[in-house]
Each structure stands twice: as structure tokens, then as C-alpha cells.
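Entry 12.
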Amino acid sequence: MQIRIRKQNPDGIARVETSGNVKEIVINEDLLHPDRESISVCYMGKSSSGIVDFTPAEIEKIYDSIKNRIHLIKGFKRVSGSGAKLL
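Predicted 3D structure (C-alpha cells):
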């Protein structure tokens, strides 16, 4: 996983790049507040680690933008109700 960030600081715009492996994907459900659900992607690299949180709407938007081109990714594995499928 590659991460590229542009961040505003007092000296101007700083660009930060890092890479790492996805270690875990956590789905955070809140039964009392369903509008606070989130999907967390946890990653760890050699010199960095972090968590990227997405709302369900953001995940839907990402999926909608790649669903028609997913066949172009060789070896893509999709998890469904019956387990992982190789596309």
C-alpha cells in the first residue's frame, strides 16, 4: 500500500510518502448510533503505521468508481458470503 499526503504547515505545503502492508480491516458498528459506522484500514510499514477510517458512503463511492474496471486487476480477491473468490 502506498500513501501520499499533502499537508499544509507554516512553511508551505509538505508532501509525505510512505508505504506499508495492510494488517487488518476493522468494521466498527454502533447499534445505538448507526450513522457512526466506519471501516478502518490498519497498516504497518518499516518506519510508519496508521489507521485510515472510511464511512460506508466513502467505501460505496470507491466501489462505484472501480466496479466497472475491476476485471483489469489480475489476481483480485473478493470476499463474499461463501468466502474469497479469485476474479
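Annotation: The CA atoms of residues 38 and 55 lie 5 Å apart. The helical segments are 56-66.
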